[in-house]
Structure prediction request, 308 residues.
Amino acid sequence: MKAKMYDIGIIGGGTAGMTAAIYGQRAGKQTVIIEGGTFGGQITSSPNVENYPGIASVSGSEFSMNLLDQAVKLGAETAMEQVTGIREENGVKVIETDGKDGKEYRCKSVIIATGVTHRHLGVPNEERLTGAGVSYCATCDGAFFRGRDVAVVGGGSTALQDAEFLSAYCRKVYLIHRRDEFRGEDNIVKRLEGKENVEFILNTTVKEIIGNTAVERLILNNKKTGKEFKLEVSGVFLAVGQIPQNEVFADIVKLDGNGFILAAEDCVTSHPGIFAAGDCRTKEVRQLTTAAADGAVAALAACKYIAE
Ligand code: NAP
Prediction:
């Protein structure tokens, strides 16, 4: 039996990937979205999205479910598999996955929309205590810390949102940031300032996480005074940014020094017919809106490539 040929193979089921599927299907193309983790990507763990135009407030999981529903209703196929590579075979792009018997998807064009993953702090005991007080997802694990004292590390929107989310459950939330200013949204900073159970610990880094079978305390370092001090917490939520995971594509598209796929606003990569959309590509602004915009741009570019 001849293997099915897809018009657009989309790697990654986050906002960029699912928007690409919606645009592709609406342009009459058969798409398949291949996702190795959770459909929705990063935004699923956002408790409240308040900066998507036209939607005043929506949970990240509801936003993701709506996107997936929209793409599937338009006819996009989905697969829950980890992509292991892409090869070019007689003008056909073959997406290789870890699916049963080395599953492959033959496509006329490909959109890589793999997003980014959580950056680790790289401090002692971080890996050992992950799942035992160390977490990278406040919405997933926050409820385990009801009535307890926790810390959030980071100064971006994720850290601010996490601190706000946790302040509803926890007795005390310490927000630890290495600078004296946050880079995340000002209006959340203002809301946090008004909360009695939130305390900012600025100009401070985490030196070590201490705990036998679970997190017991942090060893912190004040960068201004050079003084070390202890902070007793049962949980620490790390929100120190994200890194790409594009190694499996390094032999087919060019990456920059930080591992992002080299592609400009047109989403065109170094390999004809392969496009990169969303946070996984080189770009200035990594936002939900720009991920969605990339999904549309990449899908329309893929349609044009197929037509030509
Ligand atoms: P981010 O904006 O890159 O912020 C990462 C934070 O971690 C920065 O404050 C950074 O400090 C700090 N950091 C990095 N490495 C560190 C280290 N080794 N030790 C201590 N601190 C460290 O990451 P993000 O907050 O995850 O946000 C990523 C993107 O998603 C952003 O564009 C953000 O706006 C977007 N986002 C959107 C929403 C939404 O609701 N729409 C929600 C969350 C995130 P410095 O400031 O000193 O560099």
